[in-house]
Amino acid sequence: MAHPRKRKISHENRVFLYTLLGGLPAVIVAMVLLLWFVPAADSKIKWTLGLLIFGFWLGYALAVRERVVRPLQTMANLLTALREGDFSTRARGANRDEPLGDVLAEINLLSGTLQEQRLGALEATALLRTVMEEIDVAIFAFDANETLRLVNRAGQELLAQPAERILGRPAQDLDMADCLAGEGTRVLSRTFPGGKGRWGMRRTLFREGGLPHSLVVIADLSQPLREEELRAWQRLVRVIGHELNNSLAPIKSIAGSLNTMLRRPQKADDWEDDLRGGLEIIEARAEGLNQFMQSYARLAKLPAPNKQPCEIGPLLRRVVALETRTNVQLDPGPELTVNVDTAQLEQVIINLVKNAVEAAPEPAHSAPPTCCVRVGWQKTPGAMEITVTDDGPGIANLQNLFVPFFTTKPSGSGIGLVLCRQIAENHGGSLALENRTDTHGCVARLRLPL
């Protein structure tokens, strides 16, 4: 049988009871003295004094109860206002000279702090909403059930519906389920109600209220791609036009001169030599133009790498052995095997070593051969780095190193470094050239993922 639960005495009743108990001995003593010293005939005086004693006793107990309960009620009202978001309510008479005043003053300070934080949060939220409305990319927020919870103006335009009609709907109904699956960052080629083309999508996860949410950002890539394509065509036409003019202008001039010479009724004695020399110039310029076009085709038709396991040490030793113009030193490194296109990687190292050798100073005939070029490799976190270092004068213009057909060599084509970087990037790596900081010279760093 369950025992009935005992009723607890409230805090204010306990204070009232303890106050009564505290004054009870004094009341008992006062009543004993009243009965002892006041004659029995004066019963009216006894009742008056007794009621007066009991009145003071009960009144004092009630005053103590009220004095304790009223500040607690005030603090409860203040905390209730804070819980409900009303930060404007303050306690009066918060005097720090006493503990109760300290508590009330701290509650007042807490109210002010929360009020400032709420104002800051409201301002930040308003700024965030303004930015989201003005930004050109579409932003969607889905909860754990793939239900749309937030969308900006660009997102409404992408789905061609106002926010009132799409908020609260699942991603499947909005034809966006594919945006919540697969890779988090990728390019989409699809049609939305608000447009079609190529879209750059990025998906990230965040938590709100302890629950996971997905933030999907979709940007239109069609216009930037068209603008970049136009700039690429303009650069291509400018480069090819420049090279064609450089070759066709002298060819046209020499061909016109030779045509005029052949039409003369009286020819000079050495006209055959002039004809032969003019034709040789035309042939040389045509050959140069042919090499230029072949170089451009080679740059544009670089095949995808055929990756196979390759040992780095033997490959670098083979490349170093090919260079006989100067002393190339191979610094030892760890034994590494990586998946690369061996032929393409070998071509990159050959080009880098060739550039380093051509940049290194030539030793005097009487001086003993010194090491001007060093090749080494090392393992870094998640990658492998091959370095080619020379003792040359360094690079004066680092910005134009990877510009196609830019070269500082009299017979250079200007595509070697561009090809090298393209091969490195096709392998998921990178190629960088920088001037040495310890001395004069340059260092090329080829990084490939392991």
Automatic annotation (TrEMBL):
<dbReference type="InterPro" id="IPR036890">
    <property type="entry name" value="HATPase_C_sf"/>
</dbReference>
<feature type="transmembrane region" description="Helical">
    <location>
        <begin position="15"/>
        <end position="39"/>
    </location>
</feature>
<dbReference type="Pfam" id="PF08448">
    <property type="entry name" value="PAS_4"/>
</dbReference>
<dbReference type="GO" id="GO:0000155">
    <property type="term" value="F:phosphorelay sensor kinase activity"/>
</dbReference>
<feature type="domain" description="PAS">
    <location>
        <begin position="124"/>
        <end position="169"/>
    </location>
</feature>
<dbReference type="InterPro" id="IPR003660">
    <property type="entry name" value="HAMP_dom"/>
</dbReference>
<keyword id="KW-0902">Two-component regulatory system</keyword>
<dbReference type="GO" id="GO:0016020">
    <property type="term" value="C:membrane"/>
</dbReference>
<dbReference type="GO" id="GO:0005524">
    <property type="term" value="F:ATP binding"/>
</dbReference>
<keyword id="KW-0472">Membrane</keyword>
<feature type="domain" description="HAMP">
    <location>
        <begin position="66"/>
        <end position="119"/>
    </location>
</feature>
<dbReference type="InterPro" id="IPR005467">
    <property type="entry name" value="His_kinase_dom"/>
</dbReference>
<dbReference type="InterPro" id="IPR035965">
    <property type="entry name" value="PAS-like_dom_sf"/>
</dbReference>
<dbReference type="InterPro" id="IPR013656">
    <property type="entry name" value="PAS_4"/>
</dbReference>
<keyword id="KW-0808">Transferase</keyword>
<dbReference type="InterPro" id="IPR003594">
    <property type="entry name" value="HATPase_dom"/>
</dbReference>
<dbReference type="Pfam" id="PF02518">
    <property type="entry name" value="HATPase_c"/>
</dbReference>
<keyword id="KW-1133">Transmembrane helix</keyword>
<keyword id="KW-0547">Nucleotide-binding</keyword>
<dbReference type="InterPro" id="IPR036097">
    <property type="entry name" value="HisK_dim/P_sf"/>
</dbReference>
<keyword id="KW-0067">ATP-binding</keyword>
<keyword id="KW-0418">Kinase</keyword>
<feature type="domain" description="Histidine kinase">
    <location>
        <begin position="239"/>
        <end position="450"/>
    </location>
</feature>
<dbReference type="InterPro" id="IPR004358">
    <property type="entry name" value="Sig_transdc_His_kin-like_C"/>
</dbReference>
<keyword id="KW-0812">Transmembrane</keyword>
<dbReference type="InterPro" id="IPR000014">
    <property type="entry name" value="PAS"/>
</dbReference>
<keyword id="KW-0597">Phosphoprotein</keyword>
<feature type="transmembrane region" description="Helical">
    <location>
        <begin position="45"/>
        <end position="63"/>
    </location>
</feature>
<protein>
    <recommendedName>
        <fullName>histidine kinase</fullName>
        <ecNumber>2.7.13.3</ecNumber>
    </recommendedName>
</protein>
